Write the C-alpha coordinates for this entry.
Amino acid sequence: MLKYNVKSPNAMEFISHDEIMATLAWVDENKNNQALIRQIMQKADQKKGLEHREASLLLAGGDSNALFALAGKIKQEFYGNRVVLFAPLYLSNYCVNGCVYCPYNITNDTMPRKKLTQDEIRREVIALQDMGHKRLVIETGEHPKHSPIEYILESINTIYDTKHENGAIRRINVNIAATSVDEYRMLKSANIGTYILFQETYCEQTYKSIHPTGPKSDYSWHTEALDRAMQGGVDDVGIGALFGLTDYRYEFAGMLMHAEHLEAVYGVGPHTMSVPRIRRAQGIGTNNFAHGIDDETFARIVACLRISAPYTGIIVSTRESEECRRKVLDVGVSQISGGSRTSVGGYDHKQESDDRCEKNDTKQFEISDDRSLGEVVRWLIDIGYIPSFCTACYREGRVGDRFMELCKSGQIQNCCQPNALMTLQEYLLDYADADTIEAGEKLINREILTIPNEKMRTLVVDQLKKIKKGSRDFRV
Ligand code: SF4
Ligand code: SF4
Protein backbone atom coordinates (compact mmCIF):
# COMPACT_ATOMS: atom_id res chain seq x y z
CA MET A 1 0.00 0.00 0.00
CA LEU A 2 1.37 3.47 -0.94
CA LYS A 3 1.50 5.80 2.01
CA TYR A 4 0.22 9.38 1.80
CA ASN A 5 3.16 11.73 1.45
CA VAL A 6 2.47 15.35 0.59
CA LYS A 7 6.08 15.88 -0.53
CA SER A 8 6.42 12.76 -2.63
CA PRO A 9 7.23 13.20 -6.34
CA ASN A 10 4.90 10.26 -6.96
CA ALA A 11 1.29 11.17 -7.82
CA MET A 12 -0.03 8.01 -6.18
CA GLU A 13 1.45 9.22 -2.90
CA PHE A 14 0.62 12.94 -2.91
CA ILE A 15 -2.90 12.27 -4.21
CA SER A 16 -3.28 9.17 -2.08
CA HIS A 17 -6.56 7.34 -2.69
CA ASP A 18 -6.40 5.95 0.85
CA GLU A 19 -6.01 9.42 2.32
CA ILE A 20 -8.99 10.70 0.35
CA MET A 21 -11.13 7.75 1.45
CA ALA A 22 -9.99 8.25 5.05
CA THR A 23 -10.86 11.95 4.76
CA LEU A 24 -14.36 11.17 3.48
CA ALA A 25 -14.90 8.59 6.25
CA TRP A 26 -13.71 11.09 8.90
CA VAL A 27 -16.04 13.71 7.41
CA ASP A 28 -18.97 11.28 7.57
CA GLU A 29 -18.28 10.62 11.24
CA ASN A 30 -18.02 14.32 12.09
CA LYS A 31 -20.40 16.11 9.77
CA ASN A 32 -22.87 16.74 12.58
CA ASN A 33 -20.21 17.74 15.08
CA GLN A 34 -21.15 21.41 15.36
CA ALA A 35 -18.43 22.20 17.91
CA LEU A 36 -15.73 20.95 15.56
CA ILE A 37 -17.26 22.76 12.60
CA ARG A 38 -17.38 25.99 14.64
CA GLN A 39 -13.74 25.54 15.59
CA ILE A 40 -12.73 25.12 11.94
CA MET A 41 -14.79 28.16 10.94
CA GLN A 42 -12.92 30.17 13.58
CA LYS A 43 -9.61 28.97 12.19
CA ALA A 44 -10.76 29.85 8.66
CA ASP A 45 -11.66 33.33 9.86
CA GLN A 46 -7.96 33.93 10.51
CA LYS A 47 -7.52 33.76 6.73
CA LYS A 48 -4.51 31.49 6.74
CA GLY A 49 -6.32 28.70 4.89
CA LEU A 50 -7.37 25.21 5.86
CA GLU A 51 -6.04 21.75 5.13
CA HIS A 52 -8.04 19.27 3.06
CA ARG A 53 -9.70 17.40 5.94
CA GLU A 54 -10.93 20.56 7.63
CA ALA A 55 -12.16 22.01 4.35
CA SER A 56 -13.92 18.75 3.44
CA LEU A 57 -15.76 18.81 6.75
CA LEU A 58 -16.97 22.36 6.12
CA LEU A 59 -18.11 21.35 2.66
CA ALA A 60 -20.16 18.49 4.11
CA GLY A 61 -21.48 20.03 7.32
CA GLY A 62 -21.03 23.80 7.29
CA ASP A 63 -24.10 26.01 7.29
CA SER A 64 -24.45 27.52 3.80
CA ASN A 65 -25.18 31.05 4.99
CA ALA A 66 -22.20 31.05 7.34
CA LEU A 67 -19.90 29.61 4.65
CA PHE A 68 -21.05 32.13 2.05
CA ALA A 69 -20.67 35.04 4.49
CA LEU A 70 -17.14 34.04 5.49
CA ALA A 71 -16.09 33.33 1.90
CA GLY A 72 -17.50 36.70 0.81
CA LYS A 73 -15.62 38.46 3.58
CA ILE A 74 -12.33 36.75 2.73
CA LYS A 75 -12.82 37.48 -0.94
CA GLN A 76 -13.43 41.15 -0.23
CA GLU A 77 -10.32 41.36 1.92
CA PHE A 78 -7.95 39.71 -0.57
CA TYR A 79 -9.48 40.74 -3.89
CA GLY A 80 -11.74 43.69 -3.17
CA ASN A 81 -14.47 44.01 -5.75
CA ARG A 82 -12.35 43.68 -8.89
CA VAL A 83 -13.02 40.81 -11.27
CA VAL A 84 -10.38 39.94 -13.86
CA LEU A 85 -11.62 39.14 -17.36
CA PHE A 86 -10.12 36.83 -19.95
CA ALA A 87 -11.05 34.78 -23.02
CA PRO A 88 -10.06 31.34 -24.30
CA LEU A 89 -8.47 31.05 -27.74
CA TYR A 90 -8.68 27.62 -29.38
CA LEU A 91 -5.79 26.99 -31.75
CA SER A 92 -6.44 23.43 -32.89
CA ASN A 93 -8.80 20.57 -32.14
CA TYR A 94 -6.74 17.70 -33.55
CA CYS A 95 -6.24 15.30 -30.67
CA VAL A 96 -4.74 11.86 -30.17
CA ASN A 97 -6.47 11.25 -26.84
CA GLY A 98 -9.68 9.37 -26.21
CA CYS A 99 -11.22 11.44 -23.36
CA VAL A 100 -14.83 10.25 -23.33
CA TYR A 101 -16.24 13.59 -22.09
CA CYS A 102 -14.67 15.71 -24.86
CA PRO A 103 -15.90 15.98 -28.45
CA TYR A 104 -12.32 16.50 -29.68
CA ASN A 105 -11.48 12.90 -28.77
CA ILE A 106 -9.82 10.87 -31.49
CA THR A 107 -12.79 8.56 -32.02
CA ASN A 108 -15.24 11.37 -32.83
CA ASP A 109 -15.44 11.05 -36.63
CA THR A 110 -18.16 13.68 -36.94
CA MET A 111 -16.05 16.48 -35.44
CA PRO A 112 -14.55 18.69 -38.17
CA ARG A 113 -10.85 19.16 -37.42
CA LYS A 114 -9.19 22.54 -37.68
CA LYS A 115 -5.85 24.07 -36.89
CA LEU A 116 -5.34 27.80 -37.19
CA THR A 117 -2.57 29.14 -39.38
CA GLN A 118 -0.53 32.06 -38.04
CA ASP A 119 -2.58 34.40 -40.26
CA GLU A 120 -5.80 33.01 -38.83
CA ILE A 121 -4.42 33.43 -35.31
CA ARG A 122 -3.67 37.06 -36.09
CA ARG A 123 -7.27 37.56 -37.22
CA GLU A 124 -8.60 35.88 -34.09
CA VAL A 125 -6.40 38.06 -31.91
CA ILE A 126 -7.51 41.24 -33.65
CA ALA A 127 -11.14 40.21 -33.13
CA LEU A 128 -10.41 39.61 -29.42
CA GLN A 129 -8.55 42.91 -29.10
CA ASP A 130 -11.45 44.72 -30.77
CA MET A 131 -13.70 43.33 -28.05
CA GLY A 132 -11.32 44.74 -25.43
CA HIS A 133 -9.52 41.63 -24.22
CA LYS A 134 -5.97 41.86 -22.88
CA ARG A 135 -5.59 38.40 -21.36
CA LEU A 136 -6.03 35.08 -23.18
CA VAL A 137 -5.73 31.44 -22.39
CA ILE A 138 -4.71 29.33 -25.37
CA GLU A 139 -6.14 25.85 -25.77
CA THR A 140 -5.27 22.99 -28.11
CA GLY A 141 -5.85 19.30 -28.43
CA GLU A 142 -2.78 17.09 -28.02
CA HIS A 143 -1.24 16.11 -31.33
CA PRO A 144 2.46 15.55 -32.11
CA LYS A 145 2.06 16.55 -35.75
CA HIS A 146 -0.57 19.30 -35.60
CA SER A 147 0.28 21.03 -32.33
CA PRO A 148 3.91 20.33 -31.41
CA ILE A 149 5.64 22.71 -29.02
CA GLU A 150 7.12 24.64 -31.98
CA TYR A 151 3.59 25.49 -33.17
CA ILE A 152 2.58 26.61 -29.69
CA LEU A 153 5.67 28.81 -29.33
CA GLU A 154 5.19 30.35 -32.76
CA SER A 155 1.54 31.02 -31.95
CA ILE A 156 2.45 32.70 -28.65
CA ASN A 157 4.85 34.96 -30.54
CA THR A 158 2.20 35.79 -33.10
CA ILE A 159 -0.31 36.66 -30.39
CA TYR A 160 2.06 38.93 -28.47
CA ASP A 161 3.21 40.59 -31.73
CA THR A 162 -0.28 41.34 -33.02
CA LYS A 163 -1.36 44.89 -32.26
CA HIS A 164 -4.49 46.48 -33.62
CA GLU A 165 -5.23 50.12 -32.84
CA ASN A 166 -4.90 50.40 -29.03
CA GLY A 167 -5.29 46.65 -28.63
CA ALA A 168 -2.65 44.31 -27.25
CA ILE A 169 -2.67 40.92 -25.63
CA ARG A 170 -0.55 41.45 -22.54
CA ARG A 171 -0.75 38.06 -20.90
CA ILE A 172 -1.09 34.61 -22.45
CA ASN A 173 -1.95 31.75 -20.16
CA VAL A 174 -1.49 28.31 -21.62
CA ASN A 175 -3.71 25.26 -21.28
CA ILE A 176 -2.05 22.52 -23.32
CA ALA A 177 -1.37 18.83 -22.69
CA ALA A 178 1.03 17.63 -20.03
CA THR A 179 4.56 17.74 -21.36
CA SER A 180 8.26 17.43 -20.43
CA VAL A 181 10.43 19.69 -18.25
CA ASP A 182 12.29 20.83 -21.39
CA GLU A 183 9.11 21.90 -23.12
CA TYR A 184 7.90 23.71 -19.98
CA ARG A 185 11.23 25.54 -20.01
CA MET A 186 10.49 26.63 -23.58
CA LEU A 187 7.06 27.89 -22.58
CA LYS A 188 8.62 29.85 -19.74
CA SER A 189 11.07 31.45 -22.19
CA ALA A 190 8.13 32.43 -24.38
CA ASN A 191 6.82 34.60 -21.52
CA ILE A 192 3.67 32.75 -20.70
CA GLY A 193 1.59 33.79 -17.71
CA THR A 194 0.05 30.79 -15.97
CA TYR A 195 0.35 27.20 -17.18
CA ILE A 196 -3.03 25.61 -16.52
CA LEU A 197 -3.71 21.90 -16.57
CA PHE A 198 -7.01 20.47 -15.44
CA GLN A 199 -6.69 17.18 -13.67
CA GLU A 200 -10.23 16.33 -14.85
CA THR A 201 -10.60 13.78 -12.04
CA TYR A 202 -8.32 12.97 -9.13
CA CYS A 203 -9.78 9.46 -8.82
CA GLU A 204 -7.30 7.17 -10.58
CA GLN A 205 -9.85 4.49 -11.31
CA THR A 206 -12.30 6.95 -12.87
CA TYR A 207 -9.43 8.66 -14.65
CA LYS A 208 -8.45 5.41 -16.34
CA SER A 209 -11.99 4.61 -17.40
CA ILE A 210 -12.59 8.00 -19.04
CA HIS A 211 -9.14 8.23 -20.64
CA PRO A 212 -8.99 4.88 -22.40
CA THR A 213 -6.33 5.77 -25.00
CA GLY A 214 -3.57 8.23 -25.80
CA PRO A 215 -0.75 9.78 -23.75
CA LYS A 216 -3.26 11.39 -21.41
CA SER A 217 -4.37 7.95 -20.21
CA ASP A 218 -1.21 7.84 -18.03
CA TYR A 219 -2.57 9.13 -14.69
CA SER A 220 0.85 9.71 -13.13
CA TRP A 221 2.28 11.54 -16.17
CA HIS A 222 -0.73 13.86 -16.10
CA THR A 223 -0.91 14.36 -12.34
CA GLU A 224 2.82 15.05 -11.99
CA ALA A 225 2.81 17.55 -14.89
CA LEU A 226 2.65 20.66 -12.71
CA ASP A 227 5.71 19.43 -10.83
CA ARG A 228 7.56 19.23 -14.13
CA ALA A 229 6.25 22.69 -15.05
CA MET A 230 7.65 24.09 -11.79
CA GLN A 231 10.94 22.27 -12.39
CA GLY A 232 11.01 23.85 -15.86
CA GLY A 233 10.81 27.30 -14.26
CA VAL A 234 7.11 28.04 -14.79
CA ASP A 235 6.32 30.04 -11.66
CA ASP A 236 2.55 30.16 -11.86
CA VAL A 237 0.49 27.04 -12.41
CA GLY A 238 -3.26 26.51 -12.33
CA ILE A 239 -5.15 23.41 -11.24
CA GLY A 240 -8.74 22.33 -11.82
CA ALA A 241 -11.13 19.40 -11.70
CA LEU A 242 -14.00 18.76 -14.08
CA PHE A 243 -16.88 18.40 -11.65
CA GLY A 244 -19.38 15.73 -12.66
CA LEU A 245 -16.98 12.92 -13.53
CA THR A 246 -17.00 11.40 -10.06
CA ASP A 247 -18.06 12.20 -6.47
CA TYR A 248 -17.48 15.94 -6.00
CA ARG A 249 -16.26 15.38 -2.44
CA TYR A 250 -13.44 13.22 -3.80
CA GLU A 251 -12.46 15.90 -6.36
CA PHE A 252 -12.59 18.64 -3.75
CA ALA A 253 -10.25 16.81 -1.36
CA GLY A 254 -7.98 15.84 -4.28
CA MET A 255 -7.73 19.43 -5.49
CA LEU A 256 -6.73 20.71 -2.08
CA MET A 257 -4.20 17.88 -1.66
CA HIS A 258 -2.70 18.85 -5.01
CA ALA A 259 -2.43 22.46 -3.83
CA GLU A 260 -0.87 21.32 -0.54
CA HIS A 261 1.66 19.22 -2.47
CA LEU A 262 2.79 22.13 -4.65
CA GLU A 263 3.06 24.39 -1.62
CA ALA A 264 5.00 21.76 0.38
CA VAL A 265 7.48 20.98 -2.38
CA TYR A 266 7.93 24.30 -4.16
CA GLY A 267 6.95 26.73 -1.42
CA VAL A 268 4.14 28.11 -3.56
CA GLY A 269 0.68 26.73 -4.15
CA PRO A 270 -1.29 27.01 -7.39
CA HIS A 271 -1.82 30.48 -8.80
CA THR A 272 -5.38 29.60 -9.77
CA MET A 273 -8.02 26.95 -9.26
CA SER A 274 -10.68 26.30 -11.89
CA VAL A 275 -14.00 24.64 -11.21
CA PRO A 276 -15.54 23.65 -14.55
CA ARG A 277 -18.68 21.54 -14.48
CA ILE A 278 -19.25 19.01 -17.22
CA ARG A 279 -21.37 20.37 -20.09
CA ARG A 280 -23.20 18.95 -23.04
CA ALA A 281 -21.14 18.88 -26.25
CA GLN A 282 -21.32 17.49 -29.77
CA GLY A 283 -21.66 13.70 -29.49
CA ILE A 284 -21.28 13.80 -25.68
CA GLY A 285 -24.31 13.30 -23.45
CA THR A 286 -24.09 14.37 -19.82
CA ASN A 287 -26.32 11.42 -18.92
CA ASN A 288 -23.21 9.27 -19.01
CA PHE A 289 -21.92 11.18 -16.03
CA ALA A 290 -23.95 10.45 -12.94
CA HIS A 291 -22.13 12.80 -10.61
CA GLY A 292 -23.52 16.15 -11.73
CA ILE A 293 -23.89 18.76 -9.00
CA ASP A 294 -26.57 21.37 -8.48
CA ASP A 295 -25.93 25.12 -8.27
CA GLU A 296 -26.11 25.22 -4.48
CA THR A 297 -23.46 22.51 -4.10
CA PHE A 298 -21.37 24.26 -6.73
CA ALA A 299 -21.52 27.52 -4.76
CA ARG A 300 -20.57 25.65 -1.56
CA ILE A 301 -17.53 24.18 -3.33
CA VAL A 302 -16.42 27.64 -4.47
CA ALA A 303 -16.98 29.11 -1.01
CA CYS A 304 -15.01 26.31 0.69
CA LEU A 305 -12.15 26.72 -1.80
CA ARG A 306 -12.08 30.46 -1.12
CA ILE A 307 -11.99 29.83 2.62
CA SER A 308 -9.32 27.12 2.30
CA ALA A 309 -6.99 28.95 -0.09
CA PRO A 310 -7.68 32.67 0.40
CA TYR A 311 -4.75 33.76 -1.79
CA THR A 312 -5.48 31.55 -4.81
CA GLY A 313 -7.44 32.95 -7.75
CA ILE A 314 -10.65 31.06 -8.54
CA ILE A 315 -11.79 30.93 -12.16
CA VAL A 316 -15.25 30.31 -13.54
CA SER A 317 -15.90 30.17 -17.27
CA THR A 318 -18.92 30.75 -19.49
CA ARG A 319 -19.87 27.12 -18.92
CA GLU A 320 -21.89 28.63 -16.09
CA SER A 321 -25.01 30.75 -16.50
CA GLU A 322 -25.24 34.45 -15.63
CA GLU A 323 -27.23 33.59 -12.51
CA CYS A 324 -24.76 31.01 -11.31
CA ARG A 325 -21.78 33.27 -12.06
CA ARG A 326 -23.39 36.02 -10.02
CA LYS A 327 -23.70 33.70 -7.04
CA VAL A 328 -20.13 32.39 -7.16
CA LEU A 329 -18.64 35.84 -7.73
CA ASP A 330 -20.06 36.81 -4.37
CA VAL A 331 -18.54 33.82 -2.60
CA GLY A 332 -15.05 33.65 -4.02
CA VAL A 333 -14.54 33.73 -7.77
CA SER A 334 -11.93 36.29 -8.84
CA GLN A 335 -11.63 35.69 -12.60
CA ILE A 336 -14.24 35.04 -15.28
CA SER A 337 -14.20 34.67 -19.04
CA GLY A 338 -16.39 36.87 -21.17
CA GLY A 339 -17.61 36.84 -24.78
CA SER A 340 -16.04 33.39 -25.16
CA ARG A 341 -16.07 31.11 -28.18
CA THR A 342 -15.13 27.50 -27.60
CA SER A 343 -14.54 26.65 -31.26
CA VAL A 344 -11.39 26.83 -33.35
CA GLY A 345 -11.53 30.16 -35.13
CA GLY A 346 -14.68 31.31 -33.37
CA TYR A 347 -13.90 35.01 -33.00
CA ASP A 348 -13.02 36.11 -36.49
CA HIS A 349 -16.26 37.08 -38.28
CA LYS A 350 -15.76 34.99 -41.37
CA GLN A 351 -15.02 31.95 -39.28
CA GLU A 352 -17.85 32.75 -36.93
CA SER A 353 -20.41 32.51 -39.72
CA ASP A 354 -18.93 29.16 -40.77
CA ASP A 355 -19.41 27.97 -37.23
CA ARG A 356 -23.11 28.68 -37.33
CA CYS A 357 -23.27 25.93 -39.93
CA GLU A 358 -23.60 22.72 -37.94
CA LYS A 359 -21.31 20.88 -40.32
CA ASN A 360 -18.42 23.13 -39.30
CA ASP A 361 -19.17 23.29 -35.61
CA THR A 362 -15.94 22.77 -33.69
CA LYS A 363 -17.20 23.86 -30.26
CA GLN A 364 -15.57 21.99 -27.40
CA PHE A 365 -18.63 22.49 -25.22
CA GLU A 366 -21.86 24.47 -25.06
CA ILE A 367 -21.62 27.71 -23.14
CA SER A 368 -24.35 28.91 -20.79
CA ASP A 369 -23.38 32.57 -20.60
CA ASP A 370 -23.33 33.71 -24.23
CA ARG A 371 -23.32 37.45 -23.55
CA SER A 372 -20.78 39.63 -25.35
CA LEU A 373 -17.78 40.97 -23.44
CA GLY A 374 -19.43 44.41 -23.50
CA GLU A 375 -22.54 43.00 -21.84
CA VAL A 376 -20.49 41.21 -19.19
CA VAL A 377 -18.53 44.39 -18.43
CA ARG A 378 -21.73 46.39 -18.09
CA TRP A 379 -23.29 43.71 -15.90
CA LEU A 380 -20.27 43.68 -13.57
CA ILE A 381 -20.43 47.45 -13.20
CA ASP A 382 -24.16 47.29 -12.49
CA ILE A 383 -23.77 44.67 -9.77
CA GLY A 384 -20.98 46.59 -8.06
CA TYR A 385 -17.80 44.89 -9.33
CA ILE A 386 -14.87 46.53 -11.11
CA PRO A 387 -14.24 44.76 -14.43
CA SER A 388 -10.44 44.47 -14.63
CA PHE A 389 -8.20 43.87 -17.63
CA CYS A 390 -5.14 43.91 -15.42
CA THR A 391 -2.10 41.83 -16.40
CA ALA A 392 0.39 43.69 -14.23
CA CYS A 393 1.85 41.03 -11.97
CA TYR A 394 3.84 38.82 -14.28
CA ARG A 395 4.94 41.84 -16.30
CA GLU A 396 6.29 43.37 -13.09
CA GLY A 397 7.96 40.11 -12.09
CA ARG A 398 5.43 39.43 -9.34
CA VAL A 399 5.23 35.69 -9.97
CA GLY A 400 5.60 32.48 -8.00
CA ASP A 401 6.65 32.92 -4.37
CA ARG A 402 7.07 36.73 -4.76
CA PHE A 403 3.45 36.94 -5.82
CA MET A 404 2.26 34.60 -3.08
CA GLU A 405 4.04 36.61 -0.41
CA LEU A 406 2.17 39.73 -1.45
CA CYS A 407 -1.07 37.79 -1.63
CA LYS A 408 -0.72 36.17 1.75
CA SER A 409 0.00 39.50 3.39
CA GLY A 410 -3.06 40.99 1.67
CA GLN A 411 -0.84 43.68 0.08
CA ILE A 412 -1.69 42.64 -3.46
CA GLN A 413 -4.95 44.52 -3.04
CA ASN A 414 -2.92 47.75 -3.17
CA CYS A 415 -2.05 46.82 -6.76
CA CYS A 416 -5.25 45.11 -7.92
CA GLN A 417 -7.64 47.97 -7.36
CA PRO A 418 -5.55 50.74 -9.01
CA ASN A 419 -4.77 48.47 -11.96
CA ALA A 420 -8.41 47.51 -12.29
CA LEU A 421 -9.43 51.17 -12.45
CA MET A 422 -6.75 52.10 -15.00
CA THR A 423 -7.47 49.14 -17.29
CA LEU A 424 -11.21 49.77 -17.01
CA GLN A 425 -10.58 53.38 -18.05
CA GLU A 426 -8.70 52.14 -21.14
CA TYR A 427 -11.57 49.78 -21.94
CA LEU A 428 -14.17 52.53 -21.62
CA LEU A 429 -12.28 54.84 -23.94
CA ASP A 430 -11.44 52.23 -26.56
CA TYR A 431 -14.34 49.79 -26.66
CA ALA A 432 -17.39 50.73 -24.58
CA ASP A 433 -20.74 52.14 -25.68
CA ALA A 434 -21.99 55.50 -24.35
CA ASP A 435 -24.10 54.02 -21.52
CA THR A 436 -21.28 51.83 -20.28
CA ILE A 437 -18.88 54.78 -20.42
CA GLU A 438 -21.20 56.77 -18.18
CA ALA A 439 -21.69 53.91 -15.70
CA GLY A 440 -17.98 53.05 -15.75
CA GLU A 441 -16.84 56.64 -15.16
CA LYS A 442 -19.15 56.87 -12.16
CA LEU A 443 -17.72 53.64 -10.79
CA ILE A 444 -14.14 54.81 -11.29
CA ASN A 445 -14.81 58.15 -9.58
CA ARG A 446 -16.40 56.36 -6.65
CA GLU A 447 -13.68 53.73 -6.34
CA ILE A 448 -10.74 56.17 -6.55
CA LEU A 449 -11.85 57.59 -3.23
CA THR A 450 -11.53 54.19 -1.59
CA ILE A 451 -7.82 53.75 -2.44
CA PRO A 452 -6.41 53.93 1.10
CA ASN A 453 -2.90 55.16 0.33
CA GLU A 454 -2.85 58.85 -0.58
CA LYS A 455 0.29 58.63 -2.71
CA MET A 456 -1.23 55.78 -4.71
CA ARG A 457 -4.51 57.65 -5.07
CA THR A 458 -2.70 60.69 -6.49
CA LEU A 459 -0.72 58.50 -8.87
CA VAL A 460 -3.85 56.79 -10.17
CA VAL A 461 -5.68 60.10 -10.67
CA ASP A 462 -2.70 61.38 -12.63
CA GLN A 463 -2.46 58.25 -14.77
CA LEU A 464 -6.18 58.22 -15.47
CA LYS A 465 -5.78 61.74 -16.88
CA LYS A 466 -2.92 60.56 -19.09
CA ILE A 467 -5.01 57.61 -20.30
CA LYS A 468 -7.74 60.04 -21.30
CA LYS A 469 -5.14 61.97 -23.29
CA GLY A 470 -4.15 58.82 -25.19
CA SER A 471 -1.44 57.09 -23.12
CA ARG A 472 -1.89 53.38 -22.41
CA ASP A 473 -0.56 50.50 -20.32
CA PHE A 474 0.12 52.10 -16.95
CA ARG A 475 0.44 49.63 -14.14
CA VAL A 476 1.51 49.43 -10.53
FE1 SF4 B 1 -7.99 16.07 -26.40
FE2 SF4 B 1 -8.09 17.68 -24.27
FE3 SF4 B 1 -10.33 16.88 -25.45
FE4 SF4 B 1 -8.90 15.14 -24.10
S1 SF4 B 1 -9.93 16.96 -23.23
S2 SF4 B 1 -9.83 14.81 -26.12
S3 SF4 B 1 -6.84 15.87 -24.49
S4 SF4 B 1 -8.75 18.17 -26.36
FE1 SF4 C 1 -4.02 40.04 -10.92
FE2 SF4 C 1 -1.75 41.17 -10.10
FE3 SF4 C 1 -3.45 42.56 -11.57
FE4 SF4 C 1 -4.04 41.98 -9.05
S1 SF4 C 1 -2.37 43.31 -9.75
S2 SF4 C 1 -5.40 41.80 -10.81
S3 SF4 C 1 -3.16 39.94 -8.85
S4 SF4 C 1 -2.35 40.73 -12.26
The beta strands are 82-92, 135-140, 171-175, 195-196, 237-240, 272-274, 313-316, 335-337, 386-388. Residues 352-359 have pLDDT under 50 and may be disordered. The longest strand covers residues 82-92. Residues 84, 388, 390-393, 412, 415-416, 419 surround iron/sulfur cluster (ligand 2) (CB under 6 Å).
